[in-house]
Amino acid sequence: MSRLLVPLHVQSIQNLGKSQDELVYHLTAHLRMNAVYWGLTALCIMDHKDALDRQEMIDFVTSCWDDEAGGFGAHPDHDAHLLSTLSAIQILIIQDALDCVDVDRVVKFILSLQQPSGVFAGDRFGEIDTRFLFCAVNALSLLGRLSELDVEKTVGYIVQCRNFDGGFGSSIGAESHAAQVFVCVGALAILDRLDEVDVPTLSWWLAERQLPNGGLNGRPEKLEDVCYSFWVLSAMSILNKVHWIDAEKLTSFILSAQDTDNGGIADRPGDMPDVFHTLFGVAGLSILGYPGLKDLDPVYCMPADLIERMGLRKGWKNLERRTS
Amino acid sequence: MHNVKRTPQSKEAIEARKQKEQSKIREYLALTDDILNRKKSKDYSRESLNKTTQILQINPEFYTVWNYRRMILLNGIFPGCSASEINEQLSEDLSLTTTALKAHPKVYWIWNHRRWCLENVPTGPGDAGAPDHLGWRQDYWKKEMFVVEKMLDVDARNFLAWSYRRYVLSSMPIPRNPKTELTYTKRKIETNFSNFSAWHQRSKVLTSLWAKGELDERQSKEAEFDLIKNAMFTVPEDQSAWIYHRWLVGPGHDRDILEREIDTIKLLLEEQPDSKWCMESLVHYNMLLIRNHVSSVNTAELVQECRKLLGELRKVDSARRERYNELGILAPCLLSSLKATDPVQRKDLAQKRDTLADSAVSQGLTEREGRLLLFSDYYYPWERRAITVACSYRTGRKLGAFSTCIRQSCSRNCKQNSIAASVAAAAVLRNRNLGGLETREQVVRDSEHKTMEKGCAQ
Ligand SMILES: [Zn+2]
């Protein structure tokens, strides 16, 4: 079986910031904050946290502050949004630099986006999605301000998104989708309300995401994709069911999606790699106990030791780290 | 990035491409800067609107520009427009998104702008009271159904399009007969049995029609069983049908249906002796028979059959062998615990609590078996809640978290949760005892104390 090409992946992440001579770099500016978080977390899991310059990163994050809204945009001069605000907070916490944020204002921004139904809008333009609900819950928890959230209302919305297959959708009535399962189960875990999960049914549905080639899909009868290694596995870890799938086959599938020339992991073998799939591939491997990697907290998708130190660890269970 | 093939390129080819891109990058960045500067200076002119059109055609994911565009429309364009001019502008915006969606069917921001447009269509063309007062709106919503069906023709699993479809259905000024959605999903399903999105939608529509009493549940369920049987026999390896079938059968209170479906599946299994889904479903439905009809079925035989099927499943579906192992332990455990706590005889809830707690911790199960039993789906929701509390306690390490969970449960449903708390307490004991930290009595006392505190003890 091939190995995880750590030095090559580290290098590919370092190169991300240096590709300003490529059009795609500029066309993805609206994802920059998320990309920095993806890259940094992947580096942490590969134990190369210092491969990117800390101060430069903090400066970038603070330059994305949207003072009118009181949150972070994805890029300087882009509008604040919950997606980029969560990434900004995650980066600053990993870099131990939360002191450069006006936490009160961020909390106010986040809370202002909760709708009467309990779900959150991503920004003031009002698109709603359980993804944004997770961003809000996660960020408030990381900021130690969960006590200001109306938990009953929030959980009430999640419960309405639960389907007969045990999974969750993006909004009431929507089909179960592994990424939405992760955000809903993750939010319930943070809120200590996993009692709302139909554990046996959902665990069954999650285990059935594995395809004969070892990869995981996000919905029944769809193609495998490396990013589901995280969405599916994180939920399984929270439900203590990672052993319900074939870890060895999934490990080989993730490794086979590596770009062995330039580093990075793609959605599936032979495709173009990107930092999103690099993180979620590495994250999946960490949950599967791949040797040499650091532990990942599947609830927050951040380094486990950091979350543990903050006193936020929940009852998840990854596979034991292998030595070889 | 999804579905972009990696084509190995020579260094020279990469350089050449980069060179070619330089002028495009300069143009794009100049346009971006121009727009973001206009946005900063709150320039809501027609010229700025045109600039946003230009950049969104290149990059429809630039959410800040969509936001800015809406600000321009609301603050700069609409105030000087008649209703019919606003209507024309929105129609232009809708075609902008239609074009964008053809190339980028999974970009949230585009769908999002579309919704915004529809929500801002003015009343008219007629005045209040005139028959065509809502004419514009009705025309748009009718068109939306057509647009979303086109999108679903191209990709029948596009979950953004399905979400949008539900949004359109629930927003139309004159609601469609919900039964037409049954026709639509049936058409989608018959084109492709693997289309779980359509099965899902169907389950939602049926549930809602049953709840409103607009459709006879028993009768229409029988029709569904026919439809699903067709799918199961046509593509027995396709999980969509089996998941839907499990929903139709439900918790298994109806013994006749359970046994009939078991017989049907056995028939299919004879044709397809290796069918994983046949075997997996048989295990599930057999367990439901044990769970719900313990006193009227031959439980020993059913357990024996489950064990045999699970043994086969470990072979034909080895990726999930651990799950089958656990279900294999569960079946006999379930039986013994049900015999100890026959639901018919459990009238007294307090007694139920004690029996359950006992069966969870002290009927000679190993720790692993106890855990599996507690995690099974053969308990009532409140019991499961208790189990989850136990789980979060066991793995969360902190007594504080445990107490919080119990308190939260207590505030929700008094009687059941005081029992839940006690069951949870009892259930975690095995682990606590293993760690030599606390005795069973202490934990039970603590949980009951917490329960009392809330005034919830019954
Ligand atoms: Zn992916």
Automatic annotation (TrEMBL), chain A:
Residues 9-302 form the Prenyltransferase alpha-alpha toroid domain. Binds 1 zinc ion per subunit. GO terms for molecular function: metal ion binding; Rab geranylgeranyltransferase activity. Its cofactor is Zn(2+). It catalyses: geranylgeranyl diphosphate + L-cysteinyl-[protein] = S-geranylgeranyl-L-cysteinyl-[protein] + diphosphate. One of its GO terms (cellular component) is Rab-protein geranylgeranyltransferase complex. Belongs to the protein prenyltransferase subunit beta family. Catalyzes the transfer of a geranylgeranyl moiety from geranylgeranyl diphosphate to both cysteines of proteins with the C-terminal sequence -XXCC, -XCXC and -CCXX. This is Geranylgeranyl transferase type-2 subunit beta. It comes from Tetrapyrgos nigripes. The lineage of its organism: Eukaryota, Fungi, Dikarya, Basidiomycota, Agaricomycotina.
Automatic annotation (TrEMBL), chain B:
It comes from the Eukaryota. Gene3D superfamilies: Protein prenylyltransferase. One of its GO terms (cellular component) is Rab-protein geranylgeranyltransferase complex. Pfam families: PPTA. The lineage of its organism: Eukaryota, Fungi, Dikarya, Basidiomycota, Agaricomycotina. This is Geranylgeranyl transferase type-2 subunit alpha. Its EC number is 2.5.1.60. Belongs to the protein prenyltransferase subunit alpha family. It comes from Tetrapyrgos nigripes. It catalyses: geranylgeranyl diphosphate + L-cysteinyl-[protein] = S-geranylgeranyl-L-cysteinyl-[protein] + diphosphate. GO terms for molecular function: Rab geranylgeranyltransferase activity.
